[in-house]
Design brief:
The complex is a heterodimer of chains A (638) and B (198). Chain A is α+β, with helices and mostly antiparallel strands. Chain A folds into 4 domains: 3-154, Jelly Rolls (Sandwich); 179-289, CBS-domain (Roll), CATH 3.10.580; 292-487, Beta Polymerase, domain 2 (2-Layer Sandwich), CATH 3.30.460.10; 489-638. Chain A has 22 helices and 22 strands. In chain A, the strands form 7 sheets. In chain A, strands 1-8-3-6 form a 4-stranded antiparallel beta sheet. The longest helix of chain A has 27 residues, at 331-357. Chain A starts with a helix and ends in a 7-residue tail after the last helix. A 6-stranded mixed beta sheet of chain B has the order 4-3-2-1-5-6. In chain B, helix 7 runs parallel beside helix 9 (177-195). The longest helix of chain B has 19 residues, at 177-195. The chains are: A alpha+beta (638), B alpha/beta (198). Chains A and B meet through helix 1, helix 2 and strand 1 of A and strand 3 and helix 9 of B. Chain A: This is CBS domain-containing protein.
Chain lengths: 638, 198
């Protein structure tokens, strides 16, 4: 055994399923490995490629696994260091169902199936793990359970495996339908259907589909007594059967079912009933395929019972965002969907807390502030919120406030469990300061607005981005009115806010290079949040307050709205709106790549074109700055 | 010129004849190798170890590797250097004769790849001369030259460490000729695909 094999064995030992194996076994595996280097965007295998004789482990870099749906690539999974993929040859014999492509330059270990198989048979943990990861790279949880049950209990995982997952543009369907002949007896068919737990059977003649029998036929024609259970199947079957080609999209399948008013579609080789049957698509398959649809997510949120449930939904939201970005859906749309789901999660958390604590003594409103308030929260960043309750008599005030603080604590803690970190500055409703009555809040806002910088050095401007998450709309309206009435012609306040917006350091240095971090863990990375996004967000807020643009909190929409209100500068605003989207996208992609908030961009990983793209997005900021200075008559010294 | 005449009737060792006969066919196998030597002089210094991996179909084949230490007891003794390293190593130990023979058998007609490979090949050739064999006939590729060709740089040489930094290959804490050979192999794969070689 050579030194490098030893290194590889050391590397593998850190990751499942290899951690279940002894070093001796690992050395043997490591010796048989072949090392592959994949340049960015190079393919390792493609859908319909013949299976390789090995599976793969990512040694460094990132590999995207995708399927093709309606001529569009859909991301199923991305594999990072230590991840195992390309397991298909273990479990199935037909060609690859997905494409593996390097997202960045990657080094891959190819482990020959033949070598590994011996270790799998002797180690059920390894087998289990492989099954799970094989399954997680598909999107169909049902099939997996089937596989699991069959494979583990029988322990013959490589013998003719008929049940397999079919990617079918994110639509997986039964590829082993029940086939019967025209002369079958109804009772026998019913028994077969019961045994195999299917609700349909295809009637074939010479292997060609000529009809179908479903539960509906059984109940309408047999159970009603119109035919006896000893008749032959051709009397009750529905014929002809609706057939389709293999490469039909989810939407198309749905349309066909509606058009023909059927619940099952028969998949055949060439899409006509003159070729062999390949499988059957049922309504249920369509529902399963839509599991990560935003509407379904919101429904599930409404039904969830605990923070744990919400957490898994939030995870699926991240996947949804990732997939949407890959499909190049406009970021503003993704933003809308994501924020609706985020809001639903917050709402549900408040509801769950109320269910625990009993109903509130007076009406109240839970407001999201900051990025949640602006509906710009794509990645799970921190939570910021405030709580306003109705005015009560002084003697009750204590009890009422106690209740709401308890409520807020519960809510924020469960949101923390879901994955939204608490705001590091304590801007959350469970904080005594930010959970108070309407009168107190009115005072608070007038203080901030009329004497800025007096009581506290920085008013957090995020308090001016409000979005109702739960509760009484009237309270929210009241506080919005307080804000807009107070800021009207308030020179001092705008002066303060304007300077605050200008204070942020510019994104580029004098020499048009990126202004990167000089110290700390993020050295040489670019802080896209404070240097590029914040100035835009601040400016958008500043202008919309000064032009009394109400009801729009989103930075992108604020700029759009401003271009209408202030048509003379509309070009600047529109450019800023676009720039904001571009920058947000950079941040989101970075965040998804590293599972972080995406605040710091690693410039080395950007391509030259991307860097230029990023730099161009800064261009409108200069004009915006000038606009702030002239509009609010700010000088350098104010 | 006369050397060639002299050689024509010379009787080579058996392994060398086999080696020469392999060149009738062209090989699709690359052998990435590096030698560790006692110094940089072709005359005075000797090879201490050889490490090598085969690359077939753009894949480093870990099993197809070659890793030996050459026991240079006489050299160490003559120069008064401690030979602890040779004694302690767990790698396969061979005498120079056996080692070079095994290496020649291992490489066959493959294309050789290395970093500043001229020197490595020369060192092997010097050793081969002692065994009364000819010079290596294999084609040789140098990753430094490959890199310079890719970037069109003529006035500078790049060390193995520099190339590793450029292509973000992590430095391992263990320094051995095997590690170097592995790094060279990775660099070779990267450069090969960038240069579009088949």
């Amino acid at each position: 055994m050579n030194t490098i094999a030893e290194h590889i064995a050391d590397f593998l030992k850190k990751y499942p399923p290899f951690d279940n194996l002894s070093f001796q076994e690992l050395s043997e595996i490591a010796t048989s490995i072949r090392v592959i280097n994949l340049e960015k965007h190079k393919l390792l295998f493609h859908i319909n490629d013949i299976l390789h004789d090995s599976f793969y482990v990512v040694a460094s870099g990132v590999i995207n696994l995708t399927v093709i749906a309606d001529a569009e690539e859909t991301l199923i999974n991305k594999c990072v260091e230590g991840d195992v993929f390309g397991l298909r040859p273990f479990f199935a014999k037909n060609n690859y169902m997905m494409t593996a492509k390097a997202r960045e330059e990657s080094i891959i270990y190819a482990i020959p199936i033949a070598t590994f198989r011996t270790f799998v048979t002797h180690n059920s943990n390894v087998l289990e793990y492989l099954l799970e990861s094989f399954a997680s790279n598909s999107s169909n949880p049902n099939e997996i359970e089937n596989l699991h049950g069959k494979l583990v209990s029988d322990n013959i995982y490589y013998s003719d495996q008929k049940s397999e997952m079919q990617y079918f543009q994110s639509l997986s369907y039964n590829t082993t339908p029940l086939k019967i002949t025209t002369s079958s007896i109804v009772q026998e068919v019913a028994q077969l259907m019961t045994n195999t737990i299917t609700n349909s059977a295809i009637v074939c003649q010479n292997d060609l589909p000529i009809g179908i029998v479903t539960h509906t036929d059984m109940s309408t024609k047999i159970a009603t007594g119109r035919y006896s259970i000893s008749t032959t199947i051709d009397k009750i079957m529905t014929s002809p059967v609706v057939t389709i080609m293999e490469n039909v999209s989810l939407a198309e399948a749905q349309l066909l079912m509606l058009k023909y008013n059927v619940t099952h579609l028969c998949v055949t080789n060439d899409g006509t009933d003159k070729s062999t049957v390949k499988g059957i698509i049922s309504e249920h398959d369509l529902i399963v395929a839509q599991a990560s649809n935003p509407g379904v997510l919101i429904k599930e949120i409404k039904r969830s019972k605990s923070a744990e449930d919400l957490k898994s939904i939030r995870k699926r939201l991240t996947e949804l965002i990732q997939k949407s970005l890959h499909k190049n859906i406009p970021l503003s749309h993704i933003n809308n969907i994501a924020s609706e789901i985020n809001l639903a999660i917050i709402k549900r958390s408040v509801e769950l807390a109320i269910l625990d604590l009993g109903s509130p003594p007076v009406r109240f409103v839970w407001l999201s502030i900051g990025s949640q308030g602006r509906k710009e929260q794509l990645l799970s960043t921190d939570q910021d919120s405030i709580l306003i309750f109705e005015d009560v008599t002084p003697d009750k005030y204590r009890d009422v406030k106690d209740y709401f603080i308890k409520l807020a604590k519960r809510t924020t803690v469960s949101l923390e469990n879901v994955g939204y970190e608490l705001c590091p500055n304590g801007h959350i409703a469970s904080n005594m300061l930010w959970c108070k009555s309407l009168t107190d809040w009115t005072k608070q806002y007038s203080n901030w607005i009329n004497t800025p910088g007096e009581n506290s050095n920085e008013i957090s401007s995020i308090f001016f981005d409000l979005e109702i998450a739960f509760g009484e709309h009237k309270l929210e309206e009241a506080i919005q009115n307080v804000i807009f009435n107070n800021v009207k012609n308030n020179v001092l306040f705008f002066d303060f806010l304007g300077n605050d917006a200008l204070r942020k350091n510019s994104p580029l240095t004098f020499f048009k290079n990126f202004n990167v971090e000089e110290l700390g863990v993020n050295k040489d990375k670019f802080d896209i949040k404070t240097r590029a996004l914040m100035p835009l967000i601040d400016a958008a807020r500043l202008f919309s307050l000064s032009y009394s643009v109400k009801g729009v909190n989103n930075t992108y929409l604020r700029f759009k709205q401003l271009s209408i209100v202030d048509p003379r500068n509309s070009e600047i605003y529109l450019n800023c709106a676009e720039a904001f989207l571009t920058l947000s996208k950079f941040r989101t992609l970075e965040g998804l790549k590293n599972d972080s908030s995406g605040q710091f961009i690693n410039l080395h990983e950007l391509s030259k074109a991307d860097k230029e793209h990023l730099k161009n997005a800064f261009a409108p900021m200069r004009e915006l700055e000038e606009l702030i200075k002239t509009k609010f008559k700010l000088t350098q010294f104010s | 010129m006369l050397d060639w005449l002299k050689n024509i009737n010379k009787e080579y060792p058996e392994f060398w004849k086999t080696y020469l006969s392999k060149f009738e066919k062209k090989s699709n196998r690359y052998v990435v190798f590096t030698t560790e030597t006692s110094g940089l002089s072709l005359e005075k210094d000797v090879i201490l170890s050889i490490a090598s991996f085969a690359v077939i179909d753009d894949r480093i084949v870990i099993a197809d590797s070659f890793e030996i230490v050459i026991a240079q007891y006489k050299f160490f003794h003559d120069n008064g250097i401690s030979n602890e390293f040779t004694i302690e190593t767990k790698m396969k130990k061979l005498s120079e004769y056996e080692g070079i023979q095994a290496f020649v058998e291992y490489i066959g007609n493959s294309v050789l790849v290395g970093h500043h490979i001229d020197f490595d090949v020369e060192m092997i050739n010097v050793a081969l001369e002692k065994l009364e064999c000819g010079r290596l006939k294999n084609e040789a590729l140098d990753i430094d030259i490959m890199y310079r060709k890719l970037k069109d740089i003529n006035n500078k040489q790049f060390s193995l460490d520099e190339l590793c930094t450029i292509y973000k290959i992590p430095q391992s804490d263990r320094i051995s000729s095997s590690d170097d050979a592995y790094k060279i192999a990775l660099l070779f794969l990267k450069l090969k695909s960038r240069l579009g070689l088949n």
